[in-house]
Amino acid sequence: MKYGQDLEISKVDIKNVVADFATWSGPEISKAIEGGIKELDVGVLINNAGVSYPNGRFFHEVDWKMTESLIKVNSEAATWVTRAVLPAMLKKKKGAIVNMGSGSVAVLPSFPLFAIYASTKAYLGMFSRCINLEYKHHGIDIQCQVPLFVATKMTKFKKSLFLIASPEKYAKASIRCIGYEHLSMLLFMHTCHFRRL
């Protein structure tokens, strides 16, 4: 199913589920999500939690707490949340899961001074590719989207410019692209920037 073609959202119910991705174990995360969505019909899961370094640094300079947080939030959390949501999608034989990777990982052969961040985002690309092959015949689309720059707290960009998308613009493009490629760079302005690198 190509979600963006005829997706019309008229009413959205929001339910908050509190989970600490940086400190909780995987099973704790899954149980919290499972309990929180028990009564809901989840059609689309977007795993977009992520952290990075405040600035570039050598691998040995990244402290223990930051290292653990990067791995747990960027890689493990998406794995455990997906595990919690997938069974309901399997029963319905439809759904979509989007894991938010990083454009820097998609096209650069390496990303020095951000080694742990880049590695955790590369994991999401491989994880998405593998489970997409496992579940697409069950009617579930799984994709890793690889944005470049979006004006968020993590990127520290305060406003959108030509090569920096606003969160709203990226979100609209994100929904339109679900179901097409397992690894997707959505915005024209981001692909132009990559061609120039």
From TrEMBL:
The keyword Oxidoreductase applies. GO terms for cellular component: endoplasmic reticulum. Keywords: Oxidoreductase. Signal peptide: none annotated. Gene3D superfamilies: NAD(P)-binding Rossmann-like Domain. SUPFAM superfamilies: NAD(P)-binding Rossmann-fold domains (SSF51735). One of its GO terms (molecular function) is ketoreductase activity. PANTHER family: ENOYL-(ACYL CARRIER) REDUCTASE (PTHR43899:SF25), RH59310P (PTHR43899). This is Very-long-chain 3-oxoacyl-CoA reductase 1-like. It comes from Populus alba. The lineage of its organism: Eukaryota, Viridiplantae, Streptophyta, Embryophyta, Tracheophyta.
